[in-house]
Amino acid sequence: VLDSLHYSLLVVVVFACLASPIITGLFTDKFESSTVIMLLFLPIIVLRGVGSVVLPGLVAADRADTYAKLTLAGAVLNFVLNMLMIPVWGANGAVISTFISYLPIEVFGLMSLYRMAPGFWGRRDWARAAKSIAAAAATVLLHALIAPDPGNIVETVLQAAVVSCFFSGLLLLSRAITVKELVELARPLIKKR
Question: Which residues contact 32 (CB under 8 A, 6 or more apart)?
């Protein structure tokens, strides 16, 4: 769960800091209004990232039926919320209803996993998750306060690399992650060919 949280938070931090320059750098200024939708999607990235352990965990525990029921309930909730929110808020309403409908799937799925394997998540894990979220928030806040707006897509990519390194450094400083864990997380991204 923590590995998924760290991966998803890294993506969220980069997009939270650089959503507008990424969109305008890739698609021109004409699409800058799409930044709002991208920012609204960020909580879904974290939710789905952490929730990515739910299905494999429930299947391994021979409880795929639980996941199927949660998914069906989420789909029905999403449909109802879309009917209510899209007419009022358009695409933004669709994103918000998606987040709200994923929330019970992931929360109840993780609760089911915890009941089946009580030792898989403990107090130390909560503390590390809280430190990770705090590091993400601090990175986004500091970027908003001091980072210049990148002038083009190349500068945006370079700034994304700096933001990623800074966030990783905060994770290490706060002891949300160890150097060994960080290397293991980065290994698939830098594996030799």
Answer: 20, 23, 24
Dist CA 24 CA 8 (whole Å): 23
Cβ–Cβ under 8 Å, residues 135 and 176: yes
Quote the pTM value: 0.82
Half-sphere exposure of 140 (CA within 13 A, CB side): 19
Q: How many CB atoms lie within 10 A of CB 105?
A: 24
pLDDT tens digits for range 71-127: 899 999 999 999 999 999 999 999 999 999 988 888 888 888 888 877 777 788 889
CB neighbours of residue 114 within 10 Å: 14
Identify whether the C-beta of residue 62 lies closer than 8 Å to the C-beta of residue 18. Answer: no
Structure letter (DSSP) for residue 118? G
Q: Which residue has the tokens 């709200």?
A: 100
Contact 13, 165 (CB under 8 A): no
